[in-house]
Amino acid sequence: MKGASVATGAILAAAANAAVPQGVVQFDVGRRQTQSRTHRRGTDDTDLTTIANDMDDGGYFVTCKIGSPAQTLTLQLDTGSSDIWVPSSGASVCEPHSSQGGCPLGSFNADDSSTFVVTGRDKFSISYVDGSHADGSYFTDSFSIGDATLTNMTMGLGESTDINFGLVGIGYKSDEAVVSSEDDLSYAYNNLPLMMVRDGVINTNAYSLWLNDLDASTGNLLFGGIDTAKYTGDLVKIDVYADPGTGIFSSFLVALTSVGAASSSGSDTLTSESFPIAVVLDSGTTMSYVPQDLAEEIWLETGAVYNSDAQVALIPCGMASSGGNFTFGFGGPGGPTITVPMNELVMSISSEGTPVFSDGPYRGQPACEFGIQNSTSAPFLLGDSFLRSAYVVYDLVNNEVALAQTKFNATDSNIVAFPSSGAPIPSATAAPSQSQVSVTPAFTSPAYAASFGMMGSTATPTPSTGGSSSGGSGGSSGGSSGGSSQSAAGANSVPMDLLRIGALSATLFVAGGLLIL
Ligand SMILES: *[C@@H]1O[C@H](CO)[C@@H](O)[C@H](O)[C@H]1NC(C)=O
Ligand SMILES: *[C@@H]1O[C@H](CO)[C@@H](O)[C@H](O)[C@H]1NC(C)=O
Ligand SMILES: *[C@@H]1O[C@H](CO)[C@@H](O)[C@H](O)[C@H]1NC(C)=O
Ligand SMILES: *[C@@H]1O[C@H](CO)[C@@H](O)[C@H](O)[C@H]1NC(C)=O
Q1: Which of 213, 325, 405 gets mutated to test ligand 3 (max ligand atoms within 8 A of its CB)?
Q2: Distance separating alpha carbons of residues 485 and 105, to the nearest angstrom
């Protein structure tokens, strides 16, 4: 997420799609491994910076074609930012012997494109809360994703950057980097989904994201439509809230109004002084970050423990199969609920060997990163660890988001395009009571009735919170995949691949008192 969170995220791999009906563009999304080395985890710690080379960041990526003749680049998909930007072939980060090992996902050579036009020299500057950045010029050129080609797409050229792959930001245009650097909304340009609307490729500025199972190989991003075969139950829509400071819609900020825990041993309603919690649905972040009190309750339910050296909550990898789940409710009573099973919340830390707990109740057991982490301040984020369990439709015209429980590994497809600009989300009903979403905080400690069933037979840690490290968000997820899907008229769909670019460095855990296998 731009400027406010960790942007590790999502990749799309564009693949030509056979049966794509008019008005939609679909991309398959999948997860796969890459040698790419980067990290966007915020820290001033020089040790951590060194370790960054050993880190893999998870994300969903899409393969795009830019320029004339076309150059192929694989870019990270991000609903938490709004610009497309690409690393320049001349950027030092792309040199093969750079500390990040070059730009294996591709870089853009402007000199080789006959249609490249600079439109804002030195006007492109984006930075992320972790301190990573990309700076350079805005330019226009031809851009293809899936089977959609936009001949005059505005993009940023990362001439000076410490990130060795580019991004496709598909958020609100008010969140474009140029708007914040010029501090003027009038500088906003038509970004990717708006260009698709302008060029008649899709009918309205809306898209659906189906990330699919942590272990699955396919998911997809569908511009201009919904796929009713990819979820169960009903799509229920809730309001997106404008930025409280500016009154402008700039991120997918929604109201999280309940969290419940359930397992074979019982169920609990969790509480937080922050309810209703303003959370951003952010596909560019791999983990989810909730307020401290709620995170601690969730950790106690599952047996996750905060590791102050690694600065993340860890959990024995074996807990993935312990059963149990968390249900997130939005927009008040009757609003959409998404159940996230435990096996979606236990993330392997590194593709290069699993660290083990060196002491404590889990001594000797393989350590995984837990998908729900704590954060001290807003914006709280629901990233890929949550989003994989949801089918999410983003409607940037009506400022609404519709959610339904995802159908993991769905192979069917029934794509319905939005018929016109501003048309409501097809098949979605509105959350009935969101106008009454209470702002009264309530906090009581739950009974942890679900805890026994969640933890299964794994050693039970002493419920204590503590530790004394700060910050450190970021993280990753893993998996591998590839995929494909089908589309319908009026929407445009593209295949995406989730590249696994990684997680926490195993090296990090040496310092953290963990052993490396
Ligand atoms: C391409 O886009 C730029 C920036 O929006 C605009 O100035 C230019 O006129 C456009 N060119 C064409 C051929 O449409
Ligand atoms: C989905 O498919 C993957 C890969 O085949 C498999 O590992 C996973 O268990 C499946 N998920 C569900 C919920 O069936
Ligand atoms: C969540 O867990 C409870 C208790 O194990 C189970 O009854 C319920 O079916 C689960 N819900 C989902 C959606 O998996
Ligand atoms: C997360 O919780 C741990 C343990 O309570 C604490 O030490 C750490 O500072 C918290 N991190 C953030 C970012 O709030």
Answers
A1: 325
A2: 23
| Ligand 4, CB within 6 Å, residue ranges | 292, 306, 308, 374-376, 465, 467-471
pLDDT tens-digit readout, 5-29: 322 222 222 222 334 557 776 765 5
2 within domain boundaries = no
Identify the sign of the CA torsion 14, 20, 21, 26. negative
Q: What is the mean pLDDT of residues 34-42?
A: 28
Least confident of 92-96, 305-309, 361-365, 441-445: 441-445
Q: What is the pTM of this model?
A: 0.83
- A 10 A CB-CB count for 260 gives 17
Residue 5 lies in a domain: no
Catalytic residues: 78, 282
CATH of the domain at 442: 2.40.70.10
Angle, vertex CA 285, rays to CA 445 and CA 169, nearest 5? 140
Residue 3 lies in a domain: no
What is the extent of the structural domain holding 255? Answer: 10-516
- pLDDT (average), residues 102-107: 92
How many domains would you assign to the chain? 1
